[in-house]
Design goal:
8-stranded parallel sheet, 12 helices, single chain, TIM Barrel, 373 residues, 39% helix, 12 strands, binds benzoyl-formic acid, binds flavin mononucleotide, disordered C terminus
């Protein structure tokens, strides 16, 4: 086989995106923090793992539907929140929203979107009135600003909030520093931040990261909304346990695509212990490095209910707009169902953690050992 034959759709769209994007914007999308070790580890962790198929289980065709907060019967691949889609394509977040709705996947609207969450949710619902949209939120130091953002998400019809907790300070992005990319170009803005309390007339507030936030702030948020709240950026099992005690509706295991703590482990490596700590009380999602159905199924076998994808969506968007995002999502969903079938699973719940082993000579002794991972 020639190299090209097995290259895959995502690699193709990534190359097309790289050829089209302003190199500074490409670096913003692709880059991570520090030496980009956490970024690299996300994909490497999946590459180190193999799936052990089960045979003759009479599983029938895979049913992929899963229940997520505010999204019953949805697909096990969701669109992770990523900033600034209009730098990738003129249609920006509207293209992403339409493609996610068409694919039947949850769209997580970023607080740092270049389109308002209201416009995004309307675009998704124009494609599918039942489309699920979540709103990702950085808790702001000023409570009234956070609450104004929550009201916007509620009014947009969002069905859950995703609070990103891994950013007490903004990660040090080596490529952005080198490129001096620290502001959106003229004509673009973080539209959700327009007209908030304290914003200049007609202008936007900056998104603040705060190291002063604590569990009490999360609790106050939960008391101020009826929406389910997921906590994103959890890697320590003790934090996952605490979050469940605090009544969160879901946990997102994530190192922020390697853009925050460079010394963080891969999301896939942190997942099993977080899943153990959560013990099925709420859904656990994983994002970081998911590039194939095999990666998604590996995460599902290790205890995730669903996975999120960040950069692949941006590659599709930059390469081909709405069609590109649609191709990425359809491919990942189809590949996930296909790999489930090959593993002998009739659905995500049929997978066992014993079906995931480390590659290499040290891998096989781990088979079947609970907690070998
Ligand atoms: C360009 C870019 C922008 C991002 N913006 C946000 C954001 O605004 N809020 C957030 O919680 N996470 C953000 N993330 C992190 C993603 O939600 C997700 O954790 C990560 O991209 C998953 O890894 P993957 O890109 O390998 O799929 C961003 C990631 C990228 C690559
Ligand atoms: O780049 C990011 O990862 C991110 O989360 C972000 C947050 C605010 C503004 C721009 C990007």
């Amino acid at each position: 086989m020639t190299g090209g034959a097995a290259r895959g759709l995502l690699a193709e769209l990534r190359e097309k995106a790289a050829a089209r994007l302003d190199p500074v914007h490409l670096d913003f999308y692709e880059g991570g923090a520090g030496t980009e070790r956490a970024l690299a580890e996300n994909e490497r962790a999946f590459a180190r793992l193999a799936l052990l198929p089960r045979v003759l289980r009479a599983a029938g065709p895979p049913r992929t539907a899963v229940d997520l907060p505010g999204a019953p019967g949805t697909q096990p691949v969701v669109v992770a929140p990523t900033a600034f889609h209009r730098l990738a394509h003129r249609d920006g977040e509207l293209a992403t929203a339409r493609a996610a709705a068409a694919a039947g996947t949850v769209l997580t609207a970023s607080m740092a979107a270049t389109t308002t969450v209201g416009e995004m949710a309307a675009a998704a619902r124009a494609v599918d009135p039942a489309a699920a949209v979540w709103f990702q939120l950085y808790l702001q130091p000023e409570r009234e600003v956070t609450l104004a953002l929550v009201r916007r998400a509620e009014e947009a019809g969002c069905s859950a909030l995703v609070v990103t907790a891994d950013s007490p300070v903004f990660g040090r992005r080596t490529r952005d520093d080198r490129n001096r990319f620290h502001d959106l170009p003229p004509g673009y803005a973080a539209e959700n931040m327009r007209g908030l309390p304290g914003a200049p007339p007609g202008g936007t507030r900056d998104i603040a990261m705060s190291p002063a936030l604590g569990w009490a702030d999360l609790r106050r948020l939960q008391a101020a909304t009826r929406l389910p709240v997921l906590l994103k950026g959890v890697l320590h099992p003790a934090d996952a346990r605490r979050a469940v005690e605090e009544g969160v509706a879901g946990i997102v295991v994530s190192n922020h695509g390697g853009r925050q703590l460079d010394a963080a482990p891969a999301a896939a490596e942190a997942l099993p212990r977080v899943a153990d700590a959560v013990a099925g009380h709420v859904p656990v999602l994983l994002d970081g490095g998911v590039r194939s159905g095999s990666d998604a199924v590996t995460a599902l076998a290790l205890g995730a209910t669903a996975v999120g994808v960040g950069r692949p969506v941006l590659w599709g968007l930059a390469a081909e707009g709405e069609d590109g995002v649609a191709r990425v999502l359809a491919h990942l969903l189809e590949d996930t169902a296909h790999v489930l079938a090959l593993c002998g699973a009739g659905g995500p719940r049929d997978l066992g953690r014993d079906q995931v082993v480390r590659r290499g000579p040290a891998g096989l002794p781990g088979i079947g050992e609970a907690g070998s991972w």
